[in-house]
Amino acid sequence: MLGIILNLILISLGVLAFASGISFYFNEREMKYISYYTMFFGITTFLICDGYAVMGFMTNLKAAAIVRQIGLYGIDLYLLLQIAFLTKEIKLKARTRYLIIGFYALFVMHDLIIFGDISSVKMVRYDYHTAYEHVGVYPLVFHYTYIISMIVGLMITGIKWFNSLTARRDKKFVVELILADWSILLFALPEYFAKQFTQKYPAFPYCIAFVFVYFFFWSIVKRHVIFTPTAKNVSEQVFYSIDIPILIFDMDGIAKLFNPFAKKMFNVEDGHEAKLRDLFELSDVETLRLLARSKNGWSGNIKTKIKSDGSDCTLNCKIQLDNVEEPFCIIVTVMTQLLEENN
User: What is the pTM of this model?
Assistant: First the structure.
């Protein structure tokens, strides 16, 4: 019964890793290659957990031996991606970087051939779980030699990356990542010594290790994003600090958001909603025309007056599109005559 519970845990964690990786990619595209690597780390974690979990459920031992290779492929690919990520961060020359990745890719290929070969393990069916036992010492020794060399490689590139940084938060980010990588080796060692638990559930400890490393990476990258200049986090600061009134209207012409300067100019509080005609001297025809053109993606300038004091102004209207390229709001910058003269 314990085998079923452990396999369900692995399936759940694998799906969660997959979903979080995809979500990070779509939500943090401005992080460029980091968003790609995070997504791929999530996908490989999914392969590791769900590959070994499906193996554990299968009663057909030959099929289970084949499915085991999916989990092993996930492990090897995850470690290779880690090397690729770190060598990119330390900004190695392209030729040197590709040589290092190629060297470890050869290790990966041999690990899949030697340690991943069906004849290297004997599949065993327990009451509720399928596991494997290693046949012969050589494949196991090769696998752990490969794992240790990979960890050492990650350590060396991590230290080089650490030394290349100046900001304390960046150095902390690297140290956390290096310590997380070492947990893979620590969680894998019990299988080498064949303890009772790991003999019956050999894949579970290092599946959990990879899950830990992935989500630890995901969380520290998420924290790192806060301190990385992107249009998303910088534009929010600009919106709240710039001394120019900015209003955001929905597609029906109702103001949903005012920046602090606009609140002061129009004397409104948080949560206040106002129509275009409540704020500016626009006729019904002008308002309808503006909204109709905006729904078709129009952006441009409109000359009008502020209703509260009658001063001339120019409304600079920009249409914001959603993820399916449909207009969902109008960003209006109010340029009074005084502001235009100052600019």
Answer: 0.66
